[in-house]
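Please check what follows.
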Amino acid sequence: MDTQCPFCSVQCKMIVEERSTDGSPAYTVTPKPNKASEGRLCIKGMNAYQHALSGERILFPMAKVDSDFVRVSWEEAHRLIESKFAAIRRNYGNDAIGVYGGGSLTNESAYLLGKFARVALRTRYIDYNGRFCMSAAASAGNKAFGLDRGLTNPLSDIALARCIILAGTNIAECQPTLMPYFTQAKENGAFIIAIDPRRTGTTELADLHLNVKPGMDAALANGLLKVIVEQGYTDQAFIDGRTKGFKQLKEHLASMDLDHIADITGVPAGRIRQAAEAFGKASAGMVFTARGVEQQTDGYLAVRNFLNLALVTGKIGREGCGYGAITGQGNGQGGREHGQKADQLPGYRSIENEADRAYIAGVWGIDAGDLPGKGVSAYEMMEKVHGEEIRALFVMGSNPVVSNPNADFVEAGLRKLDFLVVTDMFLSETARMADLILPTTSYLENEGTLTNLEGRVLLREAGRQAPGEAKHDWQILSEIAAWLGKASFFPYTAAEQVFEELRIASRGGIADYYGITYERLRREEGVYWPCPAPGHPGERRMFEQSFAHPDGKAELIAVNHHFPKEQVSEYYPLHLTTGRVLTHYLTGVQTRRSHTLAARQFESYLEIHPATAKKHRIEDAALIRLESRRGSIVVRSKLTSDIREDTVFVPMHWGGIQNVNKVTNEALDPTCKMPGFKVCAVQVKPLLEYD
């Protein structure tokens, strides 16, 4: 069967074939040539079929009775939802029900989830786990350019760049099938700069590694900008003709001291000058950011400062030049465009814009006044759950008890709910807490579109029948809506029918999909948005002539140095940062059900520098307790000189006593509401010292 990987934002294509070996089924996975990954697959993609075929799949609805799950029919599940939701809305109002989505849902499911919340439930409270992925970069792109698309240019432009900045991104482990693009660029003579507090497979490719102190990325970008501006590496014609705000930025940079920037970032001034000169002098260059920069309490401003680098040097809107936010989740791009984010309506429209509200209300056949207003971000929803403002929660495609910061607080809040419904393939940590679990289909069974990191819309075909009584997300939503008396608004019988409505809903919006059809996607192997008409080719490279603001100009901004909300102390002397590993994805609900992937990394760990470990009496491979002001976890130590001596690292893929988000900081970026996952103050001790 033809399909595509369910994991990262590259969305590699593949062929999964079933064959028989001695009477037992066996499977062959073959990469399929395509324009995004060029026919590559990583270890996660090669083994993704294993979780889809896992014996742990949820195959029928299950309700909790006396602390145990029992099988129920779909009719019983629907009746339970109808009665519980009706009672909660009657007693507490529509906004007492929250909806929590995911960045791996298809465009069709993401679109329908937003419509379900606002039409079937009429609640303002909907958000999704993509808030923890792309919100800083999305907000920055919208403010700087007037538009947010993961990459402003096609992946093929990477090989044409002469200098590349990789800020807070470990592509080698997170999006490994992209690495050949950067290898090719280097073979073509590109100078690669990696910014990361750790040495990784990505920094090994780099010509220059800036080993920044966690949380100090915005200040480091100020240092780069200061050198570029003062040494005359700017493109003044581009600045004058296509940007605004440079005068204020220049004055701001003049007031800064490079040696001070070196001191607070931990990056020597000479290396800052070297990086700035390489990028400033290059004839073509690209800047990439990812969660290392974005998952900060100043993530929005940090990304804005890296966008400043591209703009003051004129490196955007032409071959080999541009900006890229390396999207994390499979549909992290499309998932935020069509309405499952608190402040958005389909087509990347604003829920607070009266014209946008009127248009979408017209598409949906309701009065604009009946559309709820703006809700709150994902973690703020958890605060409302904890405060018992939200009394019921409908979760689809997410595991919030593991993925949110301050996870013990989130878990305590979920236990207060009157009713928790979770739609999932597996019994995730969140599903175990549910009152009702609804079984959904996997990537092998669920047809739909996804939008990869470069803004290319792809069609994922389905070749396997749904197991047991599992249903597609869009089916589940449509059937529940019908039980809630809204059947006429959810008349869908196929995913393509949902997409046809999405096309109309997005028409004229920032993320315009109107010219894209399933037939085109099959014929053309993907189409870039915006694509406003059926004959339009889709816009591969953004901003060649102008930016998306009304005056056509990009906005530069002066960014102050920012320090993390939580500083180290005598009791909490180390910085903690988090991230991914090659063999796992998000909270591991899927990859831990792949026997191949789980065997390669079956438990979490803590990276710590040997000198730091010695100071804290920690031996290699020992169980240690990691503690912050919010909680503690137990993981195994891994001594390595690849990390700063003032920093420790823990991956994000495990729940329970290994869930690193039990210790991460819940402080939010004031603009985009991104939690500061990437830095908090911690202490480490051998586990035996607690006995």
